[in-house]
Inverse folding.
């Protein structure tokens, strides 16, 4: 009767250590994901960021064509790093629209000159208002928006080479 | 030493470039004119998490996004929205994570129940031992 009780504290410690081991071996995940996946875009209308290219409004998404919505900024280093992947997505048939967070026209123009311009529209979000309304917590992020303006997917961080096929597939899925 | 200083001066603007160049949002660092509204906004901001720093409230953080969140909170409160409505609007976007206020939910209820159970168990053990001694 007393014999097995003696082992209880040890069992508790082993259980606790096991819990630590499981939690510590998990990869760190600090991402705050948007909880708006599956819901329509909030209503918005952003002024053009650079001259010669239209701004961005929620009404632009209602034409039945799925799009990628890239949240970026000229001052954001990983945004420059994902430029080749955005070009690859564009070459793969994706239409990419963008919102520039807290940015100046001359800075964005310089950024596009240096890293290329895969965007059909760029809206200016001076106070991160659209970013907050989207549940986006940083730059860069990329949303897949279907032809009805419903948010289908959120990619957090810069797009790597390995993410390109996945995003194209999700875009295809959103169109069908 | 002087060379080190010169190097530091050269390196500093490079680091600063990772920041945006825009001025803060109007209500990022400006209080509302109505003291009651400002009090309500301040109390709310102290319980909202900064998303880019994650361990600070937006009231404590100087991150540009925290400033933009303060601007949103203050303008919404000034427009007559209740603090609860603003918190709900934000949790609809970012989930419970953005709110520091503890909430009883499907995942958090053990945090509230377990201490009560442990206290009760402790009380029972104590009563058993004291009772035996008498």
């Amino acid at each position: 009767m007393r014999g097995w009780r003696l082992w209880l504290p040890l069992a508790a410690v082993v259980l606790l250590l096991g819990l630590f081991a499981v939690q510590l071996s998990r990869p760190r995940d600090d991402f705050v994901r948007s909880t708006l996946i599956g819901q329509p875009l909030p209503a918005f209308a952003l002024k053009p960021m650079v001259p010669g290219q239209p701004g961005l409004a929620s009404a632009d998404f209602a034409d039945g064509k799925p799009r990628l919505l890239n949240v970026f900024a000229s001052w954001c280093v990983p945004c420059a790093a994902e430029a080749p992947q955005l070009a690859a997505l564009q070459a793969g048939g994706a239409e990419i629209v963008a919102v520039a967070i807290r940015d100046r026209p001359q800075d964005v123009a310089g950024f596009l000159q240096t890293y290329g311009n895969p965007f059909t529209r760029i809206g200016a979000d001076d106070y991160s208002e659209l970013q907050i309304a989207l549940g986006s917590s940083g730059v860069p992020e990329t949303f897949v928006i279907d032809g009805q303006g419903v948010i289908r997917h959120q990619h957090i961080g810069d797009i790597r080479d390995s993410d390109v096929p996945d995003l194209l597939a999700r875009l295809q899925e959103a169109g069908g | 030493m002087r060379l080190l200083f010169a190097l530091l001066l050269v390196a500093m603007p490079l680091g600063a470039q990772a920041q945006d160049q825009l001025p803060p949002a109007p209500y990022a660092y400006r209080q509302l004119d109505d003291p009651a509204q400002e009090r309500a906004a301040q109390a709310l901001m102290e319980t909202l998490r900064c998303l880019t720093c994650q361990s600070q409230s937006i009231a404590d953080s100087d991150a540009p996004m925290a400033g933009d969140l303060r601007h949103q909170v203050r303008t919404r409160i000034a427009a007559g929205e209740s603090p609860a409505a603003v918190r709900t609007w934000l949790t609809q976007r970012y989930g419970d994570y953005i709110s520091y206020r503890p909430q009883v939910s499907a995942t958090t209820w053990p945090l509230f129940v377990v201490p009560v159970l442990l206290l009760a168990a402790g009380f029972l053990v104590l009563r058993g031992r004291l009772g035996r001694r008498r």
Q: What stands out?
A: Residues 84 and 111 of chain A are 13 Å apart (CA to CA).
